[in-house]
Write a structure and sequence with these properties.
Layout (H helix, E strand, L loop, with lengths): L3 H18 L2 H39 L3 H20 L9 H6 L5 H12 L5 H22 L6 H22 L15 H25 L9 H8 L8
Helix pairs in contact: 1-6, 2-3, 5-6, 5-7, 6-8, 7-8, 7-9
Keywords: Membrane, Transmembrane, Transmembrane helix
Length: 237
């Protein structure tokens, strides 16, 4: 007999994959890749021009380069150009690094970390992760102005650098074949979605309260996340 719930889940996953290809988050990520390419290209061109200028000055004022000198200069220019273009990007931040990060850098680091976790998440969770990433990018300038010792900064750091990674890492520890298995009316997949929804709602609320200046009310539902969703891998035990 066909499991109708599993069939519906798979259909929803396919639909979410299709939506994700044209989501604002994917478009934004593509733009960042293009911007990064042109930024490296600019630096590579500057390096080539600097080497050519240095070679020209040496040949004019110190000693003629000759054929061998010109050849070596071309080799150095090629190495500099392709070295810069092929320079690997900085590694993705870890939760440990995020916990120690300066507050102005924390939203961008969490966004990059969450983007790296995206392939391990089910399609509906990927969409929520995209929305969280967009909110983190929008909140960056706002939280950069906060005193790092303020309660609002503490709550924000706790939510995105502790509870969000615990939620996602706990889900990833569940064996893949057991992530849809229901137990006590829920499943790791569903718990992950509900937990990400809580994070998304909290980030929206934080942004509204920071903008309005009502920082005294900025207390997250951290205990809710911790108690209900901490260690989604418990479902697999």
């Amino acid at each position: 007999m066909v499991d109708s719930r599993a069939t519906m889940d798979r259909a929803e996953e396919v639909l979410e994959r299709i939506r994700s290809r044209t989501s604002p988050r994917e478009i934004q990520k593509h733009r960042r890749r293009v911007a990064g390419f042109f930024r490296r290209l600019k630096y590579a061109v500057y390096a080539v021009l600097a080497i050519a200028l240095a070679g020209g000055l040496i040949g004019t004022f110190l000693t003629p380069l000759g054929i061998m000198g010109a050849f070596l200069m071309m080799v150095v220019m090629a190495v500099a150009f392709f070295g810069i273009m092929g320079w690997p990007q900085a590694p993705e931040p870890t939760p440990q690094q995020m916990a120690k990060s300066e507050l102005p850098m924390l939203p961008a680091q969490t966004e990059r970390w969450l983007e790296a976790q995206r392939p391990a998440l089910p399609a509906p969770a990927q969409r929520l992760a995209d929305e969280i990433g967009i909110k983190l990018e929008a909140l960056g300038p706002q939280f950069a102005q906060l005193d790092p010792k303020a309660p609002a900064a503490f709550e924000f750091r706790k939510l995105v650098a502790e509870e969000l990674p615990e939620l996602v890492e706990g889900y990833k520890r569940v064996p893949e074949g057991m992530r849809r298995a229901e137990r006590n009316g829920s499943s790791p997949d569903r718990q992950l979605l509900e937990g990400l929804k809580v994070v998304d709602d909290e980030l929206r609320r934080m942004g509204e309260q920071v903008v309005s200046g009502d920082l005294d009310k900025l207390a997250t539902q951290g205990r809710y996340l911790e108690l209900k969703y901490k260690g989604a891998d418990d479902e697999g035990r």
